[in-house]
Amino acid sequence: MISNKLSGKLALIVEDDPVSNELLNYLLKKVEMKTLRALSGSEAMKLFIDNPDIDIVLMDIKMPDLNGFEVTKLMKKIRPNIPIIAQTAYALSGDRQRALAEGCDEYIKKPIKKEVLFELMEKFF
């Protein structure tokens, strides 16, 4: 059972794949989270700067302009304590360690299981 820890929180979904973006938005709306969505790293940075009330970021690693690690580093310079969960469909051995070393706070591989996602997110609230 999902607690109400996520309800009312604002998540920035950084995901260039429209289907994955829509799925994450759908899942977060189910637990009454508010969402902002970016299809590129540069769009994510603009939304992040313009919305200082963002509570958590779901960061795709492979994106067309700035990759997720580059965006994570930029975001952490602005708000060092913002929780950022890396997500990737190209999971390889050592990816979790790399994501953490690059500044992400957690890591999840696709396809995303909603129970795993919510459990990871809840630990930050």
Task: Sum up the structure in keywords.
5-stranded parallel β-sheet; Rossmann fold; 40% helix; globular; alpha/beta; 5 helices; single chain; 5 strands; 125 residues
Outline the structure in words.
This protein is of the alpha/beta class. It has one domain: Rossmann fold. The protein contains 5 helices and 5 strands; from the N terminus they run βαβαβαβαβα. The chain has helices at 18-30, 41-50, 68-78, 95-101, 114-122, and strands spanning 10-14, 34-38, 56-60, 84-88, 106-109. It has a 5-stranded parallel beta sheet with strand order 2-1-3-4-5, sandwiched between helices. α3 links the parallel β3 (56-60) and β4. α2 (41-50) packs parallel to α3 (68-78). The relative contact order is 0.18.
Structure summarized in a few sentences:
By secondary structure, the protein is an alpha/beta fold.
The description of the largest β-sheet is: 5 strands, parallel
The CATH top-level class label: Alpha Beta
CATH-defined fold name: Rossmann fold
Number of beta-strand segments: 5
How many helices? 5
Terminal Cα span: 16 Å
What are the secondary-structure elements, in order, as H or E? EHEHEHEHEH
